[in-house]
Amino acid sequence: VMLVWTLDKFLNPAHASGVYGHFYGIEGLGHAAMYAIGAAELVIIAAFVLGLFKIWSYGLVLAFHTVSTLSSYQQYLAPYDDANTLFFAAWPMLAACVALFLLRDSDTLLTVELKR
After folding, report:
1. CB atoms near residue 17 (< 10 Å)
2. Does residue 24 contact residue 71 with C-beta atoms inside 8 Å?
3. Residue 106 CA to chain centroid, in angstroms?
4. Which residues 6+ apart lie within 8 Å of 63 measured at CB?
5. In the chain, what is the straight-line distance between the N-terminal and C-terminal CA atoms, in Å?
6. CB under 8 Å to 17, separation ≥6 — which residues?
7. Average pLDDT per run of 10 along the chain, which is 116 residues long?
C-alpha cells in the first residue's frame, strides 16, 4: 500500500499534492517536492522490505501510516458518504505496523543481515 502511495507521487504528482493539501493541510507542494518526498519514501520502503535499519525503517513506516490514518478522521465520522468505508482498512494495517515494530527483532524471515 505504501509503495502505491509513493508511486503516486511520481506518476501523478498533482494528485499527491492535492492529498497533502486536503488531508495534511500542506498546500502548494509542486512536482519537485512530490518527487523528493517520493524518493525519500522509496528508500525507507526498500529498507523496510529488506529488514534493514529496523528501528528507523519500521518506525518511520509506522509513523507515516499513523499520521495518514489519523489525518483521515473526517472520513471515519461519515463512513457511508462516497467511498469512505475504504478508509477503515487503514486500521488493521496500522495494527500490523504496530505489531511489526514491536516484534521487529523477531522478524528475520527474508531479512537482509548486514555485517557489523
Report:
1. 20
2. yes
3. 22
4. none
5. 31
6. 28, 29, 30, 31, 33, 34
7. 94 96 94 98 96 95 96 89 88 96 89 71
Looking at residue 113, the DSSP 8-state letter turns out to be P
CA–CA dist 39, 31 (Å, integer): 12
Separation CA 52–CA 66 (nearest Å): 21
Q: Contact, 20 vs 30, CB < 8 A?
A: no
pLDDT at residue 115, rounded to an integer: 66
If one counts every other C-beta atom within 10 angstroms of the C-beta of residue 100, the result is: 16
Q: Which residues does 79 contact at the CB level (< 8 Å), separation at least 6?
A: 85, 87, 88
Tell me the C-alpha distance between 9 and 31, whole Å. Answer: 8
